[in-house]
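[Meeting: bench + compute handoff]

Bench side (C.D.) handed over the final construct sequence. Compute side (W.E.) agreed to return the predicted structure before the next meeting so the bench team could plan truncations. Sequence as handed over:
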Amino acid sequence: MMEFIQTNLFLLACVSAGLCVAFATYVIIDFAGFTSARYKQKYLQETAIVMDDILLQLPPGRILDLSFALAALSAFLTVGTIFLVSDQQPTITKIIAAGLIAAGVTFPLPRVYLRYLSNIRLKKFNEQLEDALLAMSSSLKAGFSINQAFDAVVKENRNPISYDFTLLTQELRLGVAFDDALLNMSNRVRSQDFELVAIAIITARQTGGELTSILERLAGVIRERVRIMQKVDSLTAMGRMQAWIIGAMPFFLFFAMLYISPDMMNSFFSQPMGILIIIIVLILDICGFFVIRKITKIDI
């Protein structure tokens, strides 16, 4: 009788443990699926905004596919390099860790490149905005309307500012309210300088101010701001270069030590403590890179 009870209790404990494991696995898989879906949605939304900024007619999902492809390719090349460089057969832990690190580093590269193109476009727009304001002021002095002043900027055919003003004039021709069209362009360009211009033009139209002198003063303010930004960029160039060098140095040392002393590096991948140390070094290296970038980035 006691053996029967013990056997049933053991079976009940096994069934309970199995159910607990099954429910825990289900919760983990459901949470991972929910998190990945939210990340994919956010990734596609942010990518679509950046692609609109650089006028790239491409589905955002293609950028996500490209990110996965680059991550897989970098993991494959890293694992292949380890097999070619190592004298001994690399362990499974070493292969998985190296592949994950390479994939994690290369996965955000397409987004980083898109943001770089967006920043280049925004910088060029801000540099061209001064001449556009002076051209608009000259047109207003000549007796043209504000819409014709916008057309004068479009006819200069200086991208990207001419393209953005083309969209502005098209909205005005389609019947969009003047204030709404300016605000739409400000939201589309996301330039602090043009936001100031849009607010100044809207305020001048509502209060009856002299728009020509306002545009000339704004052009002078933007000219001085661009000059100061260029000076700040030149003064902080060494700090930005140091951030890249310091951030890349651990990776160069890693591959150098992997080639010079593969036995010592294999001990890092064969033990959990070694893998933990590598992960901590990567996190600290990335944090240090962004801290230096934050210090050298001065908003004006």
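W.E. noted at the follow-up: The mean pLDDT is 77. C.D. will use this when planning the next construct.
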